[in-house]
Amino acid sequence: MIQLSDHFNYRRLLLFTFPSVVMLVFTSIYGVVDGFFVSNYVGKTAFTAVNFIMPVLLILGCIGFMFGAGGGALIALTIGKGDREKANQIFSMLVYISLASGAVLAFLGILFLRLILSFLGAEGQMLEDCIIYGKIILLAIPAYILQYEFQCLFATAEKPKLGLYITVAAGLTNVVLDALFVAAFSWGLRGAAAATAFSQCVGGILPLIYFAGKNSSLLRLTKMQFDGRALLKTCTNGSSELMSNISSSLVSMLYNIQLLKYAGEDGVAAYGVLMYVNMIFLAAYIGFSVGVSPVIGYHYGAGNYEELKGLLKKSLTIIGVLALLMFGASQVLASPLSVMFVGYDKGLLEMTLHAFAIFAFSFLFAGFAIFASSFFTALNDGLVSALISFLRALVFQLAAVLLLPFIWGLDGIWFSIVTAEVMAVGVAGLFLLGKKKKYHY
Predict the structure, then answer these.
(1) Phi first, then psi: what are they for 401, rounded to 5°?
(2) Which of 27, 218, 300, 311 is paired with 268 by a 20 to 30 Å CA distance?
(3) What number of CA atoms fall less than 13 Å from residue 251's CA on the CB side?
(4) Can you tell me the distance from the alpha carbon of 248 to that of 411, in angstroms, rounded to the nearest whole number?
């Protein structure tokens, strides 16, 4: 078994992070599966509705990333210092607070869903479809938050493979139930939402049961012991992940508004296809970053600076190789994926393929800024991590999507994300160079 305290060569690093990569990729497939079945079995308006409401739901779920990434870094640091009991206390507190937060968000979400969607510009049948889908998903938000949280914490607990198995089980649940509820039973959007909600319960509740009982991992649920300082540190550490996810969702909402203006519902549908591919590809970068984070946190906490230097160098190399592979894959998969989702509409298909050709260049750059943000989270430097995420996911993208359409029209929207990712890599590089002496990497 690979332990956090080990020396990591390329092979060991890839083996340790691989389950986290697959976990995040499988989770991102949930929306893709729903999109496929809704688009092909329910219709274009329903497909547009799912894409329109998805950013709102992601904002609520991403609290789990904050607790998971921020808490995982703090827990790994605490274990590196030799205090296992304290690590379990922090872990338990975060899980209980996540459950309570999820219940509150589910209630508020159901209460204000129509108001939020109307404010964002949804109307008519698309608005009603959004509400049908959203209310069912909101019931599972507590489990959804836990699912994201545990995906980060399984690596910290030295059980990444178990996390992988649970995530695969959740993903297969979603696929099977979508085929049954939407394709076989013709339950439409309600069926698609129910399939996703059930799968989120599998991904969130099974780990809860595992950590509540006796287990062979580094972590176990204990009685609630509130630690305000640890909670604040967790939120600070994880603020970059929270900011990144919230920003991405807010930007997606703005993209949808801009696309409705420049291309109508077809633009939102085309953007939805791009986002499905983007979610899966970025999940690989995020999964690797989440997987390597506890290793970085452990060795920094233990003062193993030579190992820390090696981890940074190897990680950047792996990200570079991934970037080239993903760009190549996007070129090969653009046509078949577009046909799979919107092949029934010639005009929409042509728009999607054109957008794909521009959008694909973002995959060459995105991974570096994502890793840099996670790297500083692992070092417990939440401020720098949050700054990188804030600039990458919000500031640069907002500026680009608001300004570039004035120059290139609809193409300006597709170019926006590429422009933002290039600028984010520049900022991440400056922070990595500027903090080198402080953290001894």
Answers:
(1) -75, -20
(2) 27
(3) 27
(4) 20
Task: Please state, in angstroms and rounded to a whole number, the distance separating the CA atoms of residues 391 and 244.
Answer: 9
DSSP 184: I
Whether the model clears a pTM of 0.85, i.e. scores above it, the answer is: no
- Give the sign of the dihedral formed by CA 31, CA 32, CA 33, CA 37: positive
Residue indicated by tokens 């459950």: 99
Query: Which structure tokens are listed for 157?
Result: 């607990």
CA dist., res. 349 & res. 39, Å (int): 13
Q: Quickly count: other Cβ atoms within 10 Å of residue 226's Cβ.
A: 10
Instruction: Judge contact between 68 and 148, C-beta under 8 A.
Output: yes
**What's the confidence (pLDDT) of residue 31?**
62
pLDDT tens digit string along 25-60?
A: 877 776 678 788 998 899 888 888 888 898 888 888
Tell me which residue of 68, 66, 287, 222 sits closest to 157, measured CA to CA: 68
Instruction: Identify each DSSP E strand in 191-307 by its residue range.
Output: none
Q: Is residue 29 a contact partner of residue 276, using CB atoms and an 8 Å limit?
A: no
Tokens of 160: 């990444």
Joined tokens for residue 176: 């099977």
User: Are 69 and 374 a contacting pair, CB within 8 Å?
Assistant: yes
**Residue of 34, 333, 26, 356 lying closest to 194 (CA atoms):** 34
| CB-based contacts of 107, cutoff 8 Å, min separation 6 | none
Q: What share of the chain is helix, strand, coil (3-state, %, to 5)?
A: 90, 0, 10
CB 33 within 8 A of CB 175: yes
**Do residues 382 and 72 make contact, with C-beta atoms less than 8 angstroms apart?**
no
Contact 308, 378 (CB under 8 A): no
Q: From CA 337, how far away is CA 246, in angstroms rounded?
A: 27
CA distances from 13 to 4, 69, 163, 320, 334 (A): 10, 18, 17, 15, 30
In tens, the pLDDT along 323-377 reads: 999 999 998 888 998 998 888 888 889 999 999 999 999 999 999 999 999 999 8
Alpha helices in 42-83 (DSSP H): 44-61, 63-65, 71-80
Helix (H, G, I), strand (E, B) or coil at 6: coil
